[in-house]
Design brief:
This protein is an alpha+beta fold and 354 residues long. The protein is 26% helix and 22% strand. The longest helix has 18 residues, at 332-349. GO terms for molecular function: glycerol-3-phosphate dehydrogenase (quinone) activity.
């Protein structure tokens, strides 16, 4: 989605913080001051409209205009297991035996994602959410209840991941009973959209575009009913050495840019990384084209193999360095620093607290 936005004239900025909304004497939006979170360099972007779609951070930019209704950050945590430990072919959803909340197991990128919890996130929002021992025990109890014959052990879990939901609340309900509805707030060119959930992303997008249109008279919101993504270019041919399933996954992930990945690759680089649905050829392509500043960007937030492989893929870090050195301007010292920082971050944020 970000890649297609860039192709259509947009600009994507990584490690960028919104510092200040600039307004004229009548309070109308005229710009936004942004800051690079690593270099501290600032820049003012001139604009008549800003869409604030920052999730749980939305009220740091635009306080709720509705009395008594504010964002309640809720943490949802997940455990990740090898597919051979929970060998399912389709998603499975069922009630947790303790509290009857819905939980699920989903085949994901060659592993199984099991979740989720729904608890208040009581830390500062700049702190990365991390699964707790209580949450991990809660999820494992559900695994044992639904798959008793698999004898899944704590040691079978290879990673964890947690996120923050932006839920609008009067703080009067159990977290799992809070509404997942979304809201749109408008303030003289500042349009805030928050709440909602992933499955309603296009509805949220249309509501945000409708709200911003009065501030951008030349902007058209036509396009309802059209495909979300650019239709596939049927002239792109699958390499003979690549299985059809692998090619379809690449196309689904990169769209028509898949031709740039398969151009000139070797047979071995089209192989999947063991126990994942990521091929080796993706790593240098992503490292070159998707604004990688740190190794964690590449392995946790782009190709995701750091969440699928034991110890974050530690055993493959040398091979990853060899593949990506030609496209990343990192010397040996930088690589050693990146690998050390990556492993430390993985252990803190994605290890398993058993």
């Amino acid at each position: 989605m970000i890649d297609e936005a860039i192709q259509n004239g947009g600009t994507a900025r990584n490690y960028t913080t919104a510092k200040e909304i600039v307004r004229d004497q009548d309070g109308n939006v005229t710009g936004l001051v942004v800051e690079d979170s690593e270099t501290s360099q600032t820049q003012t972007l001139n604009t008549r409209a800003i869409i604030n779609a920052t999730g749980a951070w939305a009220e740091q930019i635009h306080l709720s205009p509705q009395k008594g209704l504010h964002l309640r950050p809720l943490r949802g945590s997940h455990l990740i297991f090898p597919l051979d430990k929970i060998p399912i072919k389709e998603a499975v959803s069922f009630e947790h035996p303790e509290d009857k909340r819905p939980v699920f197991a989903i085949p994901w990128e060659g592993a199984v994602l099991f979740g989720t919890t729904d608890v208040d996130f009581d830390k500062e929002l700049h702190q990365e959410p991390v699964i707790t021992r209580h949450e991990a025990d809660y999820l494992l109890a559900a695994v044992h209840a639904r798959f008793p014959d698999l004898h899944v052990k704590k040691s079978d879990c290879i990673a964890s991941i947690a996120g923050i939901r932006p839920v609008l609340s009067a703080h009067k309900k159990d977290p799992s009973k809070e509404s997942r509805e979304h809201v749109v707030w408008v303030d003289k060119g500042l349009v805030t959209i928050t709440g909602g959930k992933l499955t309603t992303f296009r509805l949220l997008a249309w509501d945000a575009l409708k709200a911003v249109r009065p501030f951008l008279p030349s902007f058209s919101t036509d396009g309802k009913g059209q495909p979300v993504f650019t239709p596939p270019d049927t002239s792109i041919q699958k390499p003979q050495s690549m299985p059809e399933k692998a090619f379809q996954k690449l196309w689904g992930r990169y769209g028509n840019k898949v031709k740039d990945i398969i151009a000139g690759v070797t047979k071995d680089s089209l192989d999947w990384i063991p126990n994942t649905h990521t091929c080796w050829a993706e790593l240098p392509y992503v490292a070159k084209n998707e604004h990688i500043r740190h190794l964690s960007d590449l392995l946790l937030r782009r190709v995701r193999i750091g969440l699928i492989l034991p110890e974050g893929g530690k055993q493959y870090l040398e091979q990853i360095q060899n593949l990506c050195t030609p496209v990343l301007d990192w010397d040996d010292e930088r690589w050693e620093m990146e690998k050390t920082q990556y492993i430390s971050q993985w252990q803190k944020a994605h290890g398993v607290p058993f």
